[in-house]
Write a structure and sequence with these properties.
Blueprint lengths: L1 E3 L2 H13 L4 E6 L5 H13 L2 E6 L9 H6 L4 H10 L4 E3 L3 H5 L15 H5 L3 H16 L3 E5 L3 H14 L4 E5 L19 H19 L7 H13 L5 E9 L12 E9 L2 E8 L1
Parallel strand pairs: 1-4, 2-3, 2-5, 3-4, 5-6
Antiparallel strand pairs: 7-8, 8-9
The structure holds adenosine monophosphate.
């Protein structure tokens, strides 16, 4: 596996790939890699001649310096993970090189003021700003994103349609642990007790979903979601609501929706969405 940290070096490999007419799959990550990222890599390997994974903890998408500084970083383990998963090229640029003194922030205009955008102001601006840099440099055929971050996926879909029409976005279902929770880099920051509490909460959510009539309107399901959530022992909650799969509105039936939640365990913010 190649580990490349600077753009000029990367470009020479990309030229070689293009000369050989290799198709390239790109998997952007912030590192602290886990089995969820592994699914994206697997899919890309299956679809393309070469798979490039980037590891870049993008400060512009964090709402606080504290959250950015405490984001898990496992360099050695990440190298091992990528190598074990047969990644062809790991790109790990510095912020200086990626932004190159360019302070421009792109403004996301889709799926605004709902879900994570409501609670993490500017977060998605940071996401599309960094992806714009990566897409321009890497020019892959396909790019892989997880349904775990569903609103992000929808926003990137719109962004790609507008600015990178020849790039194909591939979405990958959420990979879950045996207990049902989604793999996430932030899970490793949970104490044993917090993790147990989170698993138990998640399992109650799954039971709640099973008990719900699929023909209900989403609006009715959201009344039930409110009743359910007040009975849970949650320290802090940003949202817990059903939204339409396609446009993230409150229109339609439960069968066309997903349940989205963002909760806190201590300072750790945990998000998930469950397909009905
Ligand atoms: P991150 O490193 O958290 O920015 O995630 C990088 C990519 O991996 C994003 O497209 C995420 O949606 C995806 N991802 C994270 N966790 C999972 C998971 N449990 N299952 C599938 N994809 C995931």
């Amino acid at each position: 596996m190649l580990i490349i940290k600077d753009i000029s070096n990367l470009k020479s490999y990309l030229t070689a790939y293009q000369n050989r007419k290799y198709s390239i799959g790109f998997v952007p990550t912030m590192g602290a890699l886990h089995k969820g990222h592994g699914e994206l890599i697997k899919k890309s390997k299956n679809d393309n001649h070469k798979t490039i994974v980037s590891i870049f903890v993008n400060e512009k998408q964090f709402n606080s310096k504290e959250d950015f500084n405490s984001y898990p970083r496992n360099k050695g383990l990440d190298y091992e993970f990528c190598s074990n998963n047969d990644v062809d090229l790991l790109f790990e640029p510095s912020a200086e090189e990626i932004y190159n003194n360019d302070g421009t922030i792109l403004k996301n205009v889709n799926f605004k003021n709902i879900l994570c955008d409501k609670f993490r102001k500017g977060h998605f601006d940071g996401v599309i700003t960094v992806l714009d840099k990566f897409f321009t440099i890497i020019k892959s055929n396909k790019v892989y994103f997880g349904e775990k971050d569903y609103q992000q996926l929808k926003i990137i879909e719109k962004f790609i349609l507008k600015k990178y029409k020849s790039l194909q976005l591939v979405s990958v279902p959420t990979k879950r642990s045996e207990e049902g929770i989604a793999y996430s880099s932030r899970n490793e920051k949970l104490s044993k007790k917090q993790l147990q509490d989170f698993v138990s909460f998640h399992q109650k959510v799954e039971n709640f979903l099973k008990s719900l009539e699929k023909t209900f309107d989403i609006e009715i399901a959201n009344q039930k979601a409110k009743d359910f959530i007040v009975e849970q022992d949650i320290e802090e909650l940003d949202y817990f609501e059903f939204r339409n799969n396609d446009d993230l509105s409150f229109n339609g039936k439960v069968s066309e929706s997903r349940l989205f939640y963002a909760i806190y365990k201590g300072k750790i913010r945990l998000i998930d969405n469950l397909k009905i």
